[in-house]
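May I ask you to comment on the folded chain given beneath this request?
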Amino acid sequence: MTWLDAYEMAGSDGDLGALLAFNSTHLDGYRQHGAAQTNSLTAKLRWYAPAGRLRLSFNAIDNRAEDPGGLTAAQVDVDRRQAAPNNLRFDADEFIRQQRLALVWDGYAAGADQYQLRSYLGHREFGNQLGFATSGQTTFKRYFSGVGGQYSHYRELIGVPHKITTGFDLEAQQDDRRRYDNLFGERGQLRQQQDESALSQGLFIEDQINLTEQWQATLGLRYDHVRLAVDDLYLVDSRDDSGSRSLADWNYSAGLSYRLTPQQSLYARLASSFETPTINELANPQGGGFNAVLQPAQAVSRELGLKGEWTSLRYALALYRIDLKDELVAFNLPTQPGRNFYRNAGQSRRDGVELSLDWQLDDAWRWSVAYAYNHYRFTEYQTSAGDFAGKHSPGIPRQTLFTELAYENQGAYIRLGATAQARVYTNDANTQSASGYALLNLRLGKRLQLGEQSLEPYLGIDNLLGREYFDNLRINDGSARYFEPGPERTLYAGLRLLF
């Protein structure tokens, strides 16, 4: 059973607007040792001034969840609802507490020029217990912050209108990370203590060019520099794993669009990208410090699309190809189940088609659909376990589909939705997979007006037909515990109160 509670208060007075929302979700858990609770608080404040707009936002979350762990295919056949034995023995679970405050100013400059200044800061506490003893508990305290800005200048060059935007991003993160032995749910000996830091700096420029009334071009260039450092404070092992890495790259983007009609346009894009491993992804499988051999992923993407928008109909169609070098691939070790490490795949290719449609059939009926075809595979990839060139990327279904038919009249609504996906491989070798599935979901509710307050009770059933499926897969699990069965039929109820 799932319970959801939502309370929201919003209003405005002249140039000032505010929103305050609280959400709470309680899950009994379909599987043994699978209960979870999530609470979130969101506050937003907007102020409109003659010189611009100020936005202040605050978000806080408190998540706690038991971890039933992954199962082997044989264990799934015996009992889909069981927890992994070691996850019970070691009382596997995790908690996350995070607060984030952000401030954004959108300003008006001379003429039609615009600018934006933005900043944020936050704090996160994390702790978990995994299903093994040595270093089976992790905690970290994280402080993160960032500032950025951009300026958009409109001018005419050689008789052609341009919108030139330049800007910067500066972000920092500091972690105090510790690992302890997990003594069947109790904290044991300290095994690792290190301070981790990340500093990211970026500069960018983009030019939007209105070539004609129908043709528009976009050109962009960005430079990023990331410095990652670790200070090893655990010297009991007589080894200092302190160190740092600096990663930098230039990336480009180019786009061209043509307006077929006032409602439809055709576009093409070409871009490169640069993805550095996060501090978590740089975890060293051999112990403390960073994984020295892990490299950033680089990609070149091409996209061709068609989109249109009318009063009652919106659609989009896109075809794309992405060529990747050193794609980051997750795996874990049999001795440390549930803890992910990362390695690079030499070369990968992703081809796909995406289609979306949103159609307001009449005043009461609405139909939406989203479909994707994904042909993701490795083209050059070798590990000590073998050569995986030509294998499909694990964790990515070949096809996915979502569709929903909704009816709403006088505040009452009913929504019938379906989600479906094809088979998913669970490891790089493509030797095991999770079968595809299709699920039906139903939700109904009623919005009631009580003076200045609005009350919305709602009731829903997920997986209406009780199909068997997996709602999560643990890719490249070292003990072949890939599968986390999803609930068969879930009833949930909630109440949303708007002041």
Summary: The two ends are 27 Å apart (CA to CA). The first strand starts at residue 2 and ends at 13.
